[in-house]
Amino acid sequence: MQQFLSNLDNYPDIKDVYDYWLSLRPEGKMIPARKALQPQALLPLLPNCFLLEHPAKGEVYIRLFGTALVERAGLELTGINLLKHWPIADQKLIEQFWTAALRQPCITQYVISTANESGLSKQCLRTLFPLLDSTEEPRILFGYDHFLGLGDIYDNAKEGKLMATYQQIHFHDIGAGLPEENFAALLNRQIPFSL
C-alpha cells in the first residue's frame, strides 16, 4: 500500500478518486457500499470513471462508462458483458484477474495499452476499487482511467478489433491481504478484444 500511496503524488486525479473512495468506507469496514457512491461528488473526474459488476461466474458487466471513455472507445459500452468480447481461451484468466480485487479485497492498478489494426494506440493507468453490492457482497469494481499521453484518436466501432496489452500489474493491500494468483500469463502479450 505504501507504494500506491507514494505514487499518488504523481497522479493527483487518482489521489482524488482514492480519497473519495476512502471517505465512503463506514467506520470499521474495509469496503464501501455501491449505494454510498454519489457520482455528482466526482463531477470533474466522472468522465474517466466506470463501474464493473460481477454478479455471477462468466459475467462482468459495465454498469457505468464515463463520457471520456466513450469518446476514447468510439462507442458506448454500458450494459455489455465484457468477457464475451475476449477470446474464449483467455476469458477465464481475464475474469480471475478482474475479480481478484473482489475475492481478496484490494486496490488493483495496471497499465493497459490498446492498439487497433492500423497500429494506432492508446495507453492508460487503470485503478480499480472494490465496492459492496446491495447484499453486502464485494461484486462491484469502481474504476478510473488516467490516460498516459494523448494517444491516437481512432474509431474503435469502425475498427472492430483491438489488441490489448496488460502491463505492470499491482495489487495494493487495504487490510485483507493480497490475491495469491499469479497473473504473469496476462503480461506483455497482445490479446484481441472484439467490439
Protein architecture, described:
There is one protein chain. This protein has 195 residues and is of the alpha+beta class. It has a domain at 1-35 and 107-195. Helix content is 24%, strand content 34%. It has helices spanning 2-7, 12-24, 67-73, 88-103, 156-159, and strands spanning 49-56, 59-65, 106-116, 121-132, 138-147, 161-173, 190-194. Strands 2-1-5-4-3-6-7 form a seven-stranded antiparallel beta sheet, sandwiched between helices. Strand 3 and strand 4 form a beta hairpin. It is globular and about 50 Å long.
Task: Quickly list its features.
195 residues, 7-stranded antiparallel sheet, 7 strands
The poorly predicted ranges are: none
Per DSSP, the total helix count is 5
Overall pLDDT score: 89
Structural class, from helix and strand content?
alpha+beta
Q: What fraction strand?
A: 25-35%
> How would you spell out the order of helices and strands?
HHEEHHEEEHEE
Q: Span from first to last CA? A: 35 Å
Q: What's this model, at a glance?
A:
By secondary structure, the chain is α+β, with helices and mostly antiparallel strands.
Task: Reconstruct the topology from this structure.
Blueprint: H1 2-7, H2 12-24, E1 49-56, E2 59-65, H3 67-73, H4 88-103, E3 106-116, E4 121-132, E5 138-147, H5 156-159, E6 161-173, E7 190-194
Antiparallel strand pairs: 1-2, 1-5, 3-4, 3-6, 4-5, 6-7
